[in-house]
Design goal:
Structural class: mainly alpha
Order of helices and strands: HHHHHHHHHH
Shape: globular
Number of domains: 1
Radius of gyration: 16 Å
Distance between the termini: 4 Å
Largest sheet: none
Number of helices: 10
């Protein structure tokens, strides 16, 4: 079974990471490191929530109800395309939708922003914005697994905890270096796509295929 981490990281190609970097206001290299730092925090908090039966049931229900059958590529396009100035999107899409997910994961209310930890050298606002982009991807990736019958509510906490540790424990020289080399494989200081094909085998060997 392909892991959740594999599904997530395979959707984050160089162009996507560069777009995320532009939206958050950091360099593509910093965005790669921040994503590596943010995903374990996000998955770990979701695992903690799902460690209780009622939390697992609520999360699993939300995944099946709102996030199953969503194409990650299309979702990314909507998230990143909807962040520009003047864009009009429904409140349940884009960053607004991501923030709503964070509210359920980290706690918050209509009048208070989610209590999102700072990650990857970002300030509070940058951390929240990055996680608001990543949270819908995580939910859609979980939706893909539930559609395939690969997980149920009882397995959710263990899956999320394991995937959080897989990313967090990946050697920086492997994952962090991979982001850097993919984003600027020709050394011109700008993100490019030239290293993506070469990186596919590295990702496969790093996270494994079950």
């Amino acid at each position: 079974m392909t892991g959740l981490a594999d599904t997530l990281l395979s959707s984050l190609d160089a162009r996507t990471v560069q777009s995320i970097a532009q939206q958050v206001g950091i360099s593509p290299q910093s965005a790669g490191s921040a994503i590596q730092a943010a995903l374990p925090v996000l998955l770990g908090q979701m695992a903690q929530n799902a460690s209780r039966p009622e939390g697992a049931s609520a999360l699993f229900g939300a995944v099946q109800r709102d996030h199953a059958g969503i194409d990650l590529g299309g979702l990314l396009g909507g998230l990143l395309g909807g962040l520009g100035g003047g864009s009009s999107q429904p409140q349940n899409s884009g960053v607004a939708g991501g923030m709503a997910i964070l509210g359920h994961i980290f706690g918050g209310s209509r009048d208070a922003a989610p209590q999102v930890p700072k990650v990857g050298g970002l300030d509070g606002a940058g951390s929240a914005q990055l996680m608001a982009l990543l949270a819908p991807l995580v939910m859609a990736a979980l939706g893909k697994l539930t559609q395939g019958g690969q997980i149920d509510a009882g397995a959710l906490g263990g899956l999320l905890g394991g995937e959080s540790r897989r990313i967090a424990q990946a050697p920086p020289s492997a994952l962090g270096g991979l982001f850097g080399s993919v984003l600027d494989s020709d050394g011109d200081g700008e993100a490019d796509l030239g290293g993506m094909l070469k990186s596919a085998q590295t990702l496969g060997s790093l996270f494994g295929k079950g």
